[in-house]
Amino acid sequence: MLYIKCPHCGMRPQIEFSYGGDASVKRPELNKEISDQEWDDFVYNRKSLRGKHLELWQHISGCRQWIKVERDTATHEIFKTFKADEEVA
Amino acid sequence: MQKYSIFNLVKNAFSNHQNWDLAWKDPEPKEEYDVVIIGGGGHGLATAYYLAKEHNITKVAIIEKGWIGGGNVGRNTTIIRSNYMHDENGLFSEFGMDLWRKMSQDLNYNVMFSPRGIINLAHSDAQMNTYARRGNSMRLNGIDAVLLNREQVKEIIPMADFSENVRFPIFGGLMQPSAGTARHDAVAWGYARQADDMGVDIIQNCEVIGFDVSAGKINGIRTSRGNIKAKKVGLCVAGSTNILAEKLNMTLPIETHLLQACVSEPVKPVLDSVVTFGAGHFYISQSDKGEMVMGGDLDGYNSYAQRGNLPTLQHVLTEGIAMMPFLSKLKMLRTWGGIMDMSMDGSPIIDKTHIDGLYLNCGWCYGGFKATPASGWTFAHTIAQDRVHELNAGYSLNRFNTGHLIDEKGLGTKTWIS
Description:
The structure holds 2 protein chains of 2 kinds. Chain A is mainly beta. Helix content of chain A is 9%, strand content 37%. In chain B, 28% of the residues lie in helices and 26% in strands. In chain B, helix 3 packs across helix 9 (372-385). The model of chain B has no long low-confidence stretch (mean pLDDT 96).
């Protein structure tokens, strides 16, 4: 069982959360010309890093907030969690 | 190479089986090869075998970081099927079914292929309708499919829960009678032994640390055991695809996720088909040793760990017990995990890349094992002829760009959602 420290609710078990994927992916800005490649990178292409990975989780059975989690994909160690709009240092 | 036969078995019995040839050699890497296959799993070994057998290309090396058969080919639940609705998946997998049927003779190695049938259970009228549609699509592609009603399912799996007042009553199911299982280790070993005999170098304990690419063309690879020149390089590394792609400055429509499986203690024969639960993700079969072999959902987050987490296992087995209550009485013998190359539409990629001489085979999601022979056969064709075969033409890398997705499960880009 993973334990994730929700920045709003504190330490909670993994089963309260739902995974939302790579948090470093950015949606292309809408008010400018967007190439197919940019859409591809947003919708499909993923680095899927081995090691430190910044990802989105939703505290679905808790406060229902989206949060960012910095986690190691090889050891499952969780380093730090952030609010969704918080800048990741 | 010594042929495996009853006569050789008897002959070797006289010398206490001390004089069998090694099944494959342990060569030092040569300086140069025509083709280097990275990844000594089922798909890599099959690719090398068909390169030698179908295309007469024998100056081939398989580069494996660990040992052959130690990755997903030894970690799967051994299910073989072609019960797909979409043409690309159905025709590709059914071509593979033919190779499975001939495999033991072809490889002179008993892969224990057991066409015991697979049943996908339906738990509502709507689900029966979608199964009827999939079954019809399968039959149009020449794949056997039988729609079973509740009574017919009960005859085949009387141990399942057929009571009326359960959350997911069994309405019927879709069966592919020619589907089944095979001994997964034997598949790896059988391909390895034949490939080795035809001159392929199987190089184990050799990690790829870089690629030698110049002017858009691959010239070779750098490994922990030295540099190897190669005219062509094929990637067959499943869950490690993204790690190698990063070294090539490629970003792929693949995420690596963790999938678990487990077996119970061995029990007397009770289940003679493969059965999947229709209201969740759970599948079960019984091995020749008597263990109930079970699996289901991904753990649900990116992972390279090759070991799982208990909440997912508990969730999966809850579904199993809902379907077959007797499972709750069994003890768990083993659980394990493997890392899956989850593509963004749930279908694989077998294609050329933008780098001349570099070929890609990945994105197998839950279904890599059953694809082993067809994947090897088509990948060998793609590498040898430098063009895709019609069977894997749909499995292109640029389909994500052109919009020709093969979204068999209708999950879109979130193939890891359970």
